[in-house]
Amino acid sequence: MPETPSKKPVVLLVIVGIVFGVSLLLVLLGLRPTEKQLVEIVQDGQVLYTLDLASAEDQELRIEAENGSWNLVCIRDGEIFMQDAGCPDHTCVNMGVLRAENLPIVCLPNRLVIRFAQGGQT
C-alpha cells in the first residue's frame, strides 16, 4: 500500500508565504514617499538645521565633521540630497534624494543624518 504524502511541507510552505507577504507589505509601506516638507540635518545627535523644503531657496550647505571630513548638502527644487562628501565610500551621496520618512540619508563616518522632522508638518 503506497504511503500518503505528509501535509506538513504544504502547511510550512503556506506559513512561509504568508510571513513573506506580510514582510514585503510592511517594507513597501515604510518606503513610500512622504508629503512632509520639514527636514532636519543632524550631526552627532544635535540638530544643525531645520528646513522647510516647500519654501527653502536652492542652496548648498557644507557641513564640517570633527574628523576633518565634510558633507555638501544640496537643496534644489524643493528636494534635499547629499551632493558630495569627504568620506571614503560616498554611500550617503549614492542614496539620492530624501523621499521616505523611514529611509534617511546617513553618512556614518561623519555622523550626519538628513531626515524628515519628527512630528513635522504633513
**Integer-rounded radius of gyration:** 21 Å
Provide a count of the helices.
2
CATH topology of the domain at 38-116: mini-chromosome maintenance (MCM) complex, domain 2
Number of E-type strands: 7
Low-confidence stretches: none
Overall pLDDT level: 87
CATH architectural group of the domain at 38-116 = Sandwich
Estimate the global geometry from the Cα principal axes.
elongated
Question: What profile does the largest beta sheet have?
Answer: 4 strands, antiparallel
* CATH class category of the domain at 38-116: Mainly Beta
Going by CATH, the homologous superfamily of the domain at 38-116 would be N-utilization substance G protein NusG, insert domain
Distance between the termini: 67 Å
Strand arrangement in the largest pleated sheet: 2-1-7-6
